[in-house]
Design brief:
Rossmann fold; globular
Amino acid sequence: MKADLDAWLVRNERCPRPFILLGSPGIGESFGVGSHLPYELLHYAPGKLVAVAFLVNERMYIFYLPRGGVPGRVERYTKDDGVERIMDLSDAGCRGYMILDAKETMDLPTCLPTRLWGSIVLSSPNERNYKVWVETNTGSKFLYSNRYHAREMKAYSAWMRRADLAIAEGNAAVRAELDKSWRVMEGRMREVGQAPRYVFDEESYQSRKDEVEWTLNTLITGKASCFLLV
């Protein structure tokens, strides 16, 4: 994405390219994509973007970057009104970027200015979520979100317990407790995946575990096949 932004906004070499990011359901939350992307875009080269739009749960949030002494702000719209606002901004020559959180229960807009604004769709591998988008926006580039590696999870755990690690060298009881704690984390990763928010927080883990069990019990064969290739 960064290379595409530079080619579009900095070097003016080409129009923006639509992206589709595939990952496990909830990648916007589980892997922080939903917060990381707006943050990076809002801090991209000053003056290059006027607005960043984020469509989630039938709501469109449009973040306006500070310009000419005017502070930044955010406006909330319904999906359809948000699309209309984006079209108005595009018609006025304003450049922006769109983030769209695709869900099976929501149709993605098909009349967005994807040749004038950058765009990325966040989706699970279920093709129904983005099929119409791909047909409408030919040339979309697929990106894939990999899960955290076990080594990264262990490093994160070590950082959180760094004070205990400092005294574990000469304390067998602390060392044993750390080993036991990590075995618990490994068990959680086997059950809910390697997403820090669900592994290292007890309440989030229990909630996610219940969701996983419910989904597995209700998953039909057609949907299951979508996730076997990820």
